[in-house]
# Entry
Amino acid sequence: MSKLWMLVMTSTGQTLSMVFFSTLFSLLMGLPLGILLSITSGVEQGGIIPKPLLNNILGRIVNVLRSFPFIILMILLFPLSRILIGTSIGTAATIVPLSIAAAPFVARVIETALKEVDPGVVQAARAMGSTNWQIIRKVLIPEALPSLVSGVTLTIINLIGYSAMAGAIGGGGLGDLAIRYGYQRFRGDVMVVAVIIILVLVEIIQVIGNKISSHLLAKR
Amino acid sequence: MEGIFMQITLDNLQRSYGNLHAVHGVSLSIPSNTIYGIIGKSGAGKSTLVRLISLLESPDSGEVYFDDVRVDNLTKRAMIERRRRVGMIFQNFNLFSSRNAEENIAYPMEINGIDKDAIKVRVDELLKLVGLEGRGKAPISTLSGGQMQRVAIARALACNPDILFCDEATSALDPQTTHSILSLLKEIQKKMSLTVVMITHQMEVVRDACDQVAVLNDGKVVEQGFVTDIFANPSSEVTKEFLAHLVGVDGSASSDDKMVQWSKKTGTYTLRFRGDTTDQPILSRITRDLGVEFNIRAGGVQKVGDVEIGTMIVDISGDEAIKKKAIDALKKQGVLVEEEGKA
# Structure
């Protein structure tokens, strides 16, 4: 029993580190991409530097990546993991496909949040002589912050789900535990514990995200 | 930097969107150190014109000058620098909801690289100027419409602009608040010797705040001049419509501006008296001299700036020859006569 308990702890730790790092890396990739998607869109959509061709190409790449089934994407990205991490198996190796799968999702979430910013406010900022960079940094991002926080919350929750799936192909973590012990070795109790921990994690992230978002809104 | 006079000249501005000629050959000379109104109905091209002269958009052809400097073809960097010396306020205030009142006012100074201590001093000065002392920490959502516009005015003035554009600045406000915002703008104009350009669809705003006005219709200037002249002697149909709306002939103006209406029937002739003529018994003199009778349907006097303008809607009884004589006599006295159905 204590050995199994250790296993649960280790798996939880693996899940947390997978989710943490893939959130970090997907934000690093998705945030600039989302900003780019938003500012290069047409004027009627609030784009501050309309670049229709670039916007179109980026949009298509994002759509293709988003519509890829995650399991297939993972298998396709095994070689990349091997190059970056040195192996295609294990928690660290899984972070690569997780980040790449989540990045286009993050980009869309950020794009949507930024497009919600009142175009009148952006016009005012421009009329006052803001540079594009000042508009992004001092207007768009602060104005969209509550929606951005909600978007990041959603991303983390999605990544918890994805990381459980990644476990099935050698990534470790709670998903791996549930499949190997719970399913393949008929340990219903392990399965239940793994699932409950995942549910609790999702709930905690959601509550924290909502708290931050509503705190930001309450100050306005 | 305060006290710089800035004159705006527009030379044959054109801007179209697809087939729509939003601004179609507008030439205007907006004198410095005044409040200049640009009035037009929705779709007349006001918003486009304001984006052109506030340098938010470039014209298809034509030129914009601030004093003697052409500003419509500046380089990107020079354009940004120029915009920093132009203040602008909007119908929907367009304040940053992520910033409180004083942070909003600080924004233009922040992007200009002014240091924090100097910003703090200036913000307090501006809050005082717009009558919001002590409300600096207030979140924007807790302010009333009038207070929001005051914050917007403070923000627009932060970097000592030489021009202030007001784009329908009072259209979202109730009459009382409109009045207080207009008084504030007038006071600030005098204090800072600003060139203020007010774009509006409200003739009340032109009457209460502007020195000169241009009337815009279908992307063209149909009439321009001193507000008092235009109120007394409107030459275009659009202007007459605006004035009719204002004096309440169509029953839509606010109660302050409404004419006293004696008869449900509207009369054939609209008479406009201005300034000193409002004091004189012109009608009774003509009645006595010519033996013609006026049936007064409606009438009222309103203040335009410092000048009073009287409007009267009458029928004239008698045969055509006498009517004509009466009208000529009226015109001789400086009264403007418009016959219904005739421009």
